[in-house]
Amino acid sequence: HCRRTEPTVEGPPTLSGIARPLSRRILFLVACVTLVTIGHYMTELRLQHLHDVFRRLYYLPIIFAAFWFGLRGGLGTAAVVSVAFLPHVLFQWRETPMSNPEQYLEMALYLVVGGVTGGLSQMGAQRRDDLRRANQKIEEAYRTLQDQSMALVKADEQLRLADRLAAMGELSASMAHEIRNPLGSIKGAAEIFRDALGAEHKLHEFSQILVKETDRLNVILSSFLDLARPQAVDP
Known about the structure:
By secondary structure, this protein is mostly helical. Helix content is 83%, strand content 0%. α3 runs antiparallel to α4. The longest helix has 97 residues. The radius of gyration is 48 Å and the shape is rod-shaped.
């Protein structure tokens, strides 16, 4: 005997399955911000070109967070970067903190880039969700239309079959009427022969059989006509 296997149904993603990639992304962002911040604080101030590189590297976690978590992720990461970068500006450059206004402008740009990129990413994700839902509705409508089309095809086939059966019933009833008329003539002729020959004649038995068989055929035709006749349906 073959064991029947039930189809496996995949359920919705679990919280643990969603949390794993989420935690990895958060750890990646924290690691990026931490490494760039350590590079800032560990680099001597005279190496200005390296500080410029580190300031630009802050944009990477901001952009990644914006793409992964939308507007809140972009702005939140930009705020964390600004807070991590601000002590470097205030204390390591404390002798001339306002001599480098581009550093304060950089922090403002962090927020602008995080907000704009996060907003665009969130709009794109929402647009994709809308398109996905619209696609699902179109697929459902297509399946419904396909089911309705199949139902119409079956109904049309049944209607054609009913028309054929009705035509065959009418033809059969007409043939039965046509057969009944000559059958009556045959019966009448057989009765005349039977009465003319008399009971003692050797062909009297055959004429009697002929009359009996015509009666039997007449009963069969009457039953067939009753079956083919439309029946009134009680309301």
